[in-house]
Amino acid sequence: MDGVFFTKGHGTANDFVILPDPDGELELTPALVAALCDRRRGIGGDGVLRVVRAAKHPEGAAHAAEAEWFMDYWNSDGSIAEMCGNGVRVFARYLVENGLATADPAGLPVATRAGVMLAVVRTDTISVRMSTPRVYAASTATVGALTVPGLAVDCGNPHLVCGLHDGVELGGLDLTVAPLVDTALFTAGVNVEFVEPAAAVTGVDRHVRMRVHERGSGETQSCGTGALAVGAVALREAGLERGSVAVDVLGGRLVITCDERGAWWLAGPAVLVASGEVDPAVFAAAAAPAVSG
């Protein structure tokens, strides 16, 4: 078996293993994805981005007339996700730097399971026009003995945004285990964001800090759709229909903007850091049946 080429990239330390597979010939499995994302035995990452032509993927074919490329995104545990905001930005950087697309000022369309996103690629940052976030329910998340009220937000994938109050510190939360949530409301799981206000910064309407526990990945350094959900809630609570929010995550800063036309944008850095070839033994080990003892 031949090895498979890969690139490692990240957006505010939300990191991904990128697999070029233009014609959809690579057979991904949950076990293989988990093996690639393992930080000790594999390459390491919060997820896998498979780069495949939309026309060559059954879930991308419906968007082939709008976008040449489909982002086939998998969480690090081998589960499939509808959307990843930082993933789209890293995906767009990969396409442009490898000559698969051009950095059109009007935007580069990328097909995802949540629809077609538009990426504007610049030298230092990539901005992506996202799905319009929809706040649709109140709920709670429990971490240890602490239960925090929050708002459910649909960003093409599910989120629960929980604001911290009464002296509870963001850095003191134990997110090594998944927060307890209402499984009747979040039947497919949910990404949970915890938020606290931060000092005002120039050029934005609101500034907050965020930590996130992502379904299928655990706590990550950043989450693009999570920042979008947080930005939507921050503007809503401020009584603003339009505006921008700086969202500080563990891996840096993202900026969420709802522009004058009502379009929502996620902006931040996206970096490719390494490339190489996966040893065929990784594929063989992932395909091997488990041994019971």
TrEMBL record:
InterPro entries from the UniProt entry: DAP_epimerase_AS (IPR018510), DAP_epimerase_DapF (IPR001653)
Keyword entries, A-Z: Amino-acid biosynthesis, Cytoplasm, Isomerase, Lysine biosynthesis
Pathway per the UniProt entry: Amino-acid biosynthesis; L-lysine biosynthesis via DAP pathway; DL-2,6-diaminopimelate from LL-2,6-diaminopimelate: step 1/1
Catalytic residues in the record: 84, 223
The UniProt record lists the keyword Amino-acid biosynthesis: yes
Subcellular location: Cytoplasm
Catalysis: reaction(s): (2S,6S)-2,6-diaminopimelate = meso-2,6-diaminopimelate
Top-level division of the source organism's lineage: Bacteria
Protein's UniProt keywords contain Isomerase: yes
Positions marked as site (Could be important to modulate the pK values of the two catalytic cysteine residues): 159, 214
Positions contributing to substrate binding: 14, 75, 85-86, 157, 191, 214-215, 224-225
Main location, first listed in the record: cytoplasm
EC number: 5.1.1.7
PROSITE patterns hit by this protein: DAP_EPIMERASE
Function summary: Catalyzes the stereoinversion of LL-2,6-diaminopimelate (L,L-DAP) to meso-diaminopimelate (meso-DAP), a precursor of L-lysine and an essential component of the bacterial peptidoglycan.
Family of this protein: Belongs to the diaminopimelate epimerase family.
Complex and partners: Homodimer.
Name of the molecule in the record: Diaminopimelate epimerase
Encoding gene (name): dapF
